[in-house]
């Protein structure tokens, strides 16, 4: 599946996750957010996405949801408030498609780790 992003087209897998981590940009994030029903990426949401990406790049794992909120100075339920659930935040942040046990955990609003 292709996501048309000027001046470049990025590839998504069958579930809508970025195929290549390095293809992410704020413009790509906005298009991914729109596909997930999030009409606007506010500065707060973008700040959270950057933290998620930086954490994943450093540790090769999704951060504990509470730590996302704490590190971006947001209330403890910020991920659910801003993105519906952590799985949507994962997808919009351009992280690779997670394994099924983690998908179920994130969809349920639970945190890994």
**Overall residue-averaged pLDDT value:** 84
Helix content: 40-55%
Kindly give the count of domains: 1
Distance between the termini: 31 Å
What overall geometry do the principal axes of the alpha carbons give? Answer: globular
Q: Please state the CA-atom Rg, rounded to the nearest Å.
A: 13 Å
Oligomer: single chain
Layout of helices and strands:
Blueprint: E1 2-5, E2 8-11, H1 26-35, H2 43-59, H3 65-71, H4 78-83, H5 86-92, H6 100-107
Antiparallel strand pairs: 1-2
Model description:
There is one protein chain. The chain is mainly α and 113 residues long. The protein has helices at residues 26-35, 43-59, 65-71, 78-83, 86-92, 100-107, and strands at residues 2-5, 8-11. The longest helix has 17 residues, at 43-59.
């Amino acid at each position: 599946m292709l996501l048309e992003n000027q001046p470049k087209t990025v590839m998504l897998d069958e579930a809508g996750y970025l195929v290549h981590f390095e293809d992410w940009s704020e413009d790509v994030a906005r298009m991914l957010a729109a596909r997930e029903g999030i009409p606007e990426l506010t500065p707060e949401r973008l700040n959270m996405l950057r933290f998620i990406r930086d954490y994943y790049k450093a540790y090769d794992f999704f951060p504990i949801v509470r730590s996302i909120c704490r590190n971006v100075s947001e209330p403890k339920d910020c991920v659910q408030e801003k993105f519906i659930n952590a799985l949507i935040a994962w997808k919009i942040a351009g992280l690779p498609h997670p394994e099924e046990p983690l998908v179920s955990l994130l969809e349920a609003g639970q945190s890994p780790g």
